[in-house]
Amino acid sequence: MNAPGFAAAPRRLEQLPFSHSFAALPPAFYTRLQPKPLPAPYLVCASPAAAALIGLDPAEFATEEFVATFAGNRILSASQPLAAVYSGHQFGVWAGQLGDGRAILLGEVAADAPGGALEVQLKGAGLTPYSRMGDGRAVLRSSIREYLCSEAMAALGIPTSRALCVVGSDELIMRETPETSAVATRLAPSFIRFGSFEHWYYQGKTAELKILADHVIDRFYPELRADANPYQALLAAVTRSTAHLVAQWQAVGFMHGVLNTDNMSILGITIDYGPFGFMEAFDAGHICNHSDSQGRYAYASQPNIGHWNCYALGQALLPLIGEVDDVHAALAGYATAYQEKIDELLHAKLGLQASMEDDVGLFEAMFKLMQDNHVDFTLFFRRLGELQRENPGADAPLRDLFIDRAGFDAWAGQYRLRLGRENRSDAARRAAMHAVNPKYILRNYLAQIAIDKAQDKDFSEIARLQKVLERPFDDQPEFETYAALPPDWASQLEVSCSS
User: Fold this and answer.
1) Is 202 part of any domain?
2) What is the pLDDT of residue 7?
3) Which of 191, 206, 232 is the last residue before a domain boundary?
């Protein structure tokens, strides 16, 4: 969720105007419960930009009440904590009932967002009836990664949940090794997932399925209510927004890592940051999640997986839509929506104003060259903006990214010819390209440096990195090292589903 800030006078915590539309659903949709207190909590980081979305005064960050509230140790009088039930397909296999195994929803706060409010959710707040074999906690490592990436994605203009803060504790919990625990506070218009609908479909409970669909339509897609088949229209809208979201991921080299149906938002926003990664040395088959042994969620597979997940949602909505053909008609828009969006984004990334017949060939040749040379994804597009149409001699910073210099020269020649078919100055094209090709992304090694320091109670690097990532498209000379090629040791980093 990357809506503009909510225009309201800054509020104190106790003044947050909570509402509870999800809690107004029947009790079968959730379990009311209290968070489990976090021992001796301390503030790790907090986002003024996220606080502004709900009109919260950042001065509250410094109070004991803020830390206690978002550790789950203190319950605001207006909140109604609950954990939601859902199900889902995990790595393509039906996993049955899942649910908020460590997330607790406090309620919704008025905001400039779809539905007019943002849900406030604690992640890592303790056991729930849906925890299965888990302990209900999150570790500091993964909480910092989610915090940084949520805010970085918003700055990139990609629809996403937001992160208000992370509260840590010296309490140890076991993953592969003992790690300290944390609670991350997330904001989103809704955390309803594809798997929320699958839950009721696979139980054969059409009445509950309809209640949920009506809730989503009335709150987030009210314009669909007048449609002849509002449930088909809902599927079509979600299919389209999902296709657009995946195209935006591909355009910045973002890999989600765990595109299970229970991690797919009904609003087409990025949620549930786990073993994510941003592409560095380009490899279309790159797998960012060490737990994904079959490569189901590799970079190049994300568009097809997005489509597969929409089919799973379509199956779940079939009892409401009525006819299989109507489900297929709604899903048919995915390929077109994705292709149109990625085409638009690639033209912008290459500084091309018009779409011409042979552009696809230019794009395909570019990605093949990047693949063959394992060129850094972000640096390539950023430096491409510096290319001068009439001066190949100035190509060195870009050309040096390639082992096959002759191959680059040949492609650059074709690119220059294509640029020559449009009347645009180098300066204008550079400005346009730099506005869409980030200089700064959340590289895994940058996150790891911040995590390592945080584990020693030094949170300065989180704040510094967040400051850099808030302006991903700007030249920030004082932070030039954050835009450099990753060090050799970065290639040894692994991220997995363990968090």
Assistant:
1) yes
2) 46
3) 191
